[in-house]
Amino acid sequence: MNQLSAMRAFRCIVEAKGFSAAAERLDTTHSTISRQLQQLEIELGAQLINRNTRRFSLTSAGEQYYAACVDILDRVKAASQAIAQGHQRPEGLLRVSVPLVVGTLELPHWLPGFQRRYPDIELELHGDDQFVDVVADGFDVVVRIASALADTTLIARTLTVSRQVLVASPSYIGRHGLPRSAQELDAHRLLTFIGATSDWALSPARGETIKVTPSGQFRSNTISALHAATLAGAGIACFTQATVRNDLAQGRLVPILPNYSLGERHYYALYPQSRHLAPKVRAFVDHMAEFYAAQ
């Protein structure tokens, strides 16, 4: 016997003032309701309802047990609702790994809104330009920038797709001039990200793709350091449009060969597969997707 189910049936009989009405409320049959009550009385070793007349009455034991049923069932319902509401509200510790550029250059633009929107989330942010093991390292979600993802057992959601652009500081252009063609890049200082594809593939609107091998006085394994060097006038570098949008808008950097295409990069949110995605994870991923869409 399912005791909670039997208790609900007994309570419903009392409150509906009859077996048939209780059966209708619970979407079951009269015989099922009657059987549940009988099993409950056997389990308790006491009669709960007098069935001598067409209009039943509670025994003294029935009155006592009804009060207990109301208290217990209401507590169970309240506990279930509290747990459900807690799972629906984004809260708790959220461990996230992001590329350094997202955790430094872009952070001032997305973090304040996230904190205002989700004050109950405690965000622990790890900056890393290398791929990490989401599960083994205990992250809830990882953001990565890549041209494509290798096969993975993780859920991957595209936050945005951003084209790659060449940029340099006005001070660098003032000293070295503005290249007018891909071929002229060979005469310039080209800064590069360690670990990226060695060649830049520049595709004009018409004609064949031209491959350029960056060579200069500076390389870095972090995009943020590469960005700082570019702002300092060290040379020409390749970034996603999302990374340097504000620099271009405010004149800190200028576009180089804007008529050439260098392909695109995807911003991915990666998280483990689960039947029930934690609200805090969904909140972060949705917020980042909305942030990039607004850009």
Strand and helix map with partners:
Blueprint: H1 3-16, H2 19-25, H3 30-44, E1 49-50, E2 57-58, H4 60-88, E3 92-98, H5 100-103, H6 107-117, E4 121-127, E5 141-146, E6 155-168, H7 170-176, E7 192-193, E8 200-202, E9 210-212, E10 219-220, H8 223-231, E11 237-240, H9 241-249, E12 254-256, E13 264-271, H10 279-294
Parallel strand pairs: 3-4, 3-5, 7-10
Antiparallel strand pairs: 1-2, 5-13, 6-11, 6-12, 6-13, 8-9
Brief characterization of the structure:
Helices cover about 40% and strands about 20% of the residues. It is α/β, with parallel strands linked by helices and about 300 residues long.
Structural features, described:
The chain has 295 residues and is an alpha/beta fold. The chain has two domains: 3-88, Winged helix-like DNA-binding domain superfamily/Winged helix DNA-binding domain (Arc Repressor Mutant, subunit A, Orthogonal Bundle), CATH 1.10.10.10; 92-295, D-Maltodextrin-Binding Protein, domain 2 (3-Layer(aba) Sandwich), CATH 3.40.190.290. The protein has helices at residues 3-16, 19-25, 30-44, 60-88, 100-103, 107-117, 170-176, 223-231, 241-249, 279-294; strands at 49-50, 57-58, 92-98, 121-127, 141-146, 155-168, 192-193, 200-202, 210-212, 219-220, 237-240, 254-256, 264-271. The strands form four sheets. Strands 3, 4, 5, 6, 11, 12 and 13 form a seven-stranded mixed sheet that branches. Strands 1-2 form a two-stranded antiparallel sheet. The protein has a two-stranded parallel ribbon with strand order 7-10. A hairpin with a 6-residue loop joins strand 1 (49-50) and strand 2. Helix 1 crosses helix 2 (19-25), helix 1 crosses helix 4 and helix 2 packs across helix 3 (30-44). The chain is rod-shaped and about 105 Å long. The model has no long low-confidence stretch (mean pLDDT 87).
